[in-house]
């Protein structure tokens, strides 16, 4: 179950980061509220996952899911550029996440 908590926490990290962008500096109420709620959920599930998983593993995978997820949302929904270097960087993060999971 801790891996499920961690995965969902990572997805919620993507949600709160995306909502933060949409809040336009906390000037829009609904995206700000969504950000706060998903942030609390993300941190809560991360804390549950850390009951069983090592700190370094849990935190690295959580931030990796968030980073790659936010990168993907930025490209697909916000029109951010997909350059070769950015794609390579994202693939390296994914490789690190996979390696960390295999090492656990």
Summary?
The chain is mostly helical. The chain is built from four helices and no strands.
Overview of this structure, please?
The chain has 104 residues and is mainly alpha-helical. The protein has one domain. The protein has 4 helices and no strands. It has helices at residues 2-22, 29-49, 55-78, 84-103.
Write the layout of secondary structure elements.
Layout: H1 2-22, H2 29-49, H3 55-78, H4 84-103
* Main sheet makeup: none
Shape: flat
Count all strands and give the number: 0
Radius of gyration: 14 Å
Record keyword descriptors for this entry.
104 residues, mainly alpha
């Amino acid at each position: 179950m801790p891996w499920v908590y961690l995965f969902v926490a990572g997805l919620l990290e993507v949600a709160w980061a995306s909502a933060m962008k949409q809040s336009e500096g906390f000037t829009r109420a609904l995206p700000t509220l969504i950000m706060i709620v998903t942030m609390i959920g993300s941190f809560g599930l991360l804390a549950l996952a850390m009951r069983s998983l090592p700190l370094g593993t849990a935190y690295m995978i959580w931030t990796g899911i968030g980073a790659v997820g936010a990168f993907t949302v930025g490209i697909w929904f916000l029109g951010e550029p997909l350059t070769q270097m950015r794609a390579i960087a994202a693939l390296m993060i994914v490789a690190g996440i996979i390696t960390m999971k295999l090492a656990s």
